[in-house]
Amino acid sequence: MNEKTTEAPPHVKQFMPDTVPNVEKNIVPPGSPLSIKIIPERLSNVTCCPTATTALATSPIFESPILLVLPCKRWGCQVCRSQKIRALAFNIHAAAPNRLLTLTVDTDIDPNPEVAWLNTRDKPSELFRALRARKLSIEYLKVTEVTKKGYPHYHCLLRSDYLPQPVIKALWTRLTRSSIVDIRIVTNQFNAFSYLVKYLSKISSLEWTDRHVSYSRKFFPVPPSQTDWENDISTKITRRIDEHPYAYLTRFYYRRELTRLSPYRWLLNDYPTASENPVDYDTLKIRKPATQPTPMDKWLPDF
Ligand SMILES: [Zn+2]
After folding, report:
1. C-alpha 77 – ligand 1 centre gap (Å)
2. Cα-to-chain-centroid distance, residue 9
3. CA of 185 to the centre of ligand 1 (A)
């Protein structure tokens, strides 16, 4: 039986999401290191997905509205890749895989790596369906890796019943005409974990796909989410903005101190309007203070 502990094991701890401060009421004390003055130079030191967009949201646990960073979540994005690995690694312990299956694609069959990938990408899931049809319980996480020549092969972490190698081999050969399959027992969760991190960390963007990892619906007891706010079901997005969060913050909160709760959540202390912002966003120059209307202005008709 898998030991269930509330404490994450040491090898998982280093990948735990950034700690979110105690956000119950009195939020974050003034002068906290989480307070960041919104100026572009400061923001450029804070790592963020370069193609993220913005959402404004509310959540009953915060007294102020919050800004959410919506990352692109692509493997090709360096920032999102490391967050995705972190989210997967954090959850792998709970998924308790017990087997590692490697499915190899024969390089003589297809004319080039991309065709080999197109012809085989759906085959691992077909293989698992066939095994399930034989009343075998099987949940998987599939990682697509490429060999030096660029041909894909599939590493699958499984949580499954005993799987006879000859059966898998026969099925894989029928599906892909390739016959090399390797199945081994995962006795040490740490090995499964370091395997995952090792392979995923060196993945570079493949030209023809951004889908490096997929997993069956029940593989993770709790689906890994890259952003902490996705786990807070009380979060209600009120508006989505097609602008980078840091651009948005500079535009509306220039020189204000805001609290960065996590890489994906900022506390907005108030709702300024564009005209209140003392800085013109396009030129980044200080605006002249708005002139107060004279009493006479009030009586001028609108044209
Ligand atoms: Zn990204």
Report:
1. 5
2. 22
3. 34
Distance from the first to the final alpha carbon of the chain: 79
Residue pLDDT, tens place only, 244-288:
999 888 888 888 888 888 889 998 866 555 555 555 555 656 555
Distance CA 77, CA 194 (A): 21
Contact (CB, 8 A) for 264 and 71: yes
DSSP class of residue 209 equals: B
C-alpha of residue 50 to centroid of ligand 1, in Å? 6
Output the pTM of the full model: 0.68
Per-residue pLDDT of 71-103, as tens digits, reads 998 887 888 888 888 888 778 878 889 999 999
Ligand 1 centroid–CA 189 distance in Å is 29
Centroid of ligand 1 to alpha carbon of 53 (angstroms): 10
Long-range contacts formed by 81-84: CB under 8 A, 24+ apart: 81/200, 81/203, 82/201, 83/226, 83/263, 84/200, 84/213, 84/226
Where are the CATH 3.30.70 domain residues in the chain? 78-215
Is 54 in contact with 240 (CB distance < 8 Å)? yes
Tell the burial category of 94 from Cβ atoms under 10 Å away from its Cβ (0-12, 13-18, 19+): middle
78-215 CATH = 3.30.70
Q: How far is the CA of 75 from the centre of ligand 1 (A)?
A: 8
